[in-house]
Amino acid sequence: MPKSVIITCAPTGGIHTPTMSPHLPITPTEIATASIEAAEAGASIIHLHARHPETGKPDPRPELFQQFMPVIKQSTDAVINVSTGGGLGMSMDERMLAATTTSPEMASLNVGSLNFGIFPMLQKYTEFQHDWERPFLEMTEDFIFPNTFGTIRYAIEKLGGEHGTRFEFECYDLGHLYNVKWFVDQGLIKPPFFIQMVFGILGGVGADLDNLMHMHTIADRLFGPENYEWSVLAAGRHQMPFATQAALLGGNLRVGLEDSLFIGKGELATSNAQQVRKIRDIVENLGLEVATPAEARERLALKGADRVNF
């Protein structure tokens, strides 16, 4: 029998800016509401970033995370996953601070450096709501998102070793799978681990289904299918097709306004839950089941919601 499909929802992220959609959650209350609604719609993991409540700029302060994480925990059984990607331009210490403060069950971890180009979004907008938005997009034309072996090791040892947090390993390119393999071979990453394959970011692997198939094949070869869970996210218009393909191949998937602001061609999604409901319908129409948070915890060997610091 095929395994149930773990749906992750990333409600706000650190890429899109407030000008791009009026539905992007900004305040702690909005992020909490979006997360709860997504969990009720079928997401078993919620991948979280924080934003400045007045400007919407990505914000690493733990006190902001603490305003919405306990609310989500009290209202749902979803696994709470704290990003260590933060916002482009943050230091690794800034990116880690929310996770080391809250000691979550899961945290995301980028496992390779890359050019991370979101500057093409400038072509779509002539005016912005806030002064920070245009320079934030512009700077990515000459920007490397740094994730060195040293900082990856630091995160694994600090969060994994000291907090018992397990990771959503974000792989933006084929070489990132080999980076994970190196840490597996060093004994720092132990199964079952969670590989999130990311497609369609300028600077990473392109959103071509052949790339998905190849990365899945290589991951199976590197890790052995019994040792890891894999998931797929794709940016923008590729979100739903790639999520569907992942489910068809026996994998898991991620949706949310962090990855795409749209629900259909030219139509902004009005909520994260709308995206979750759409992919859940697709998954169930394929004859597959959606995983519960309890199933996700068991398959990913998580420490449990009673061992977090929020």
UniProtKB/TrEMBL annotation:
Q: Which UniProt keywords apply?
A: Metal-binding, Transferase, Zinc
The protein's name is 3-keto-5-aminohexanoate cleavage protein
- Presence of the UniProt keyword Ribosomal protein in the record: no
InterPro entries membership: Aldolase_TIM, BKACE
Please give the cofactor(s) recorded in the UniProt entry for this protein.
Answer: Zn(2+)
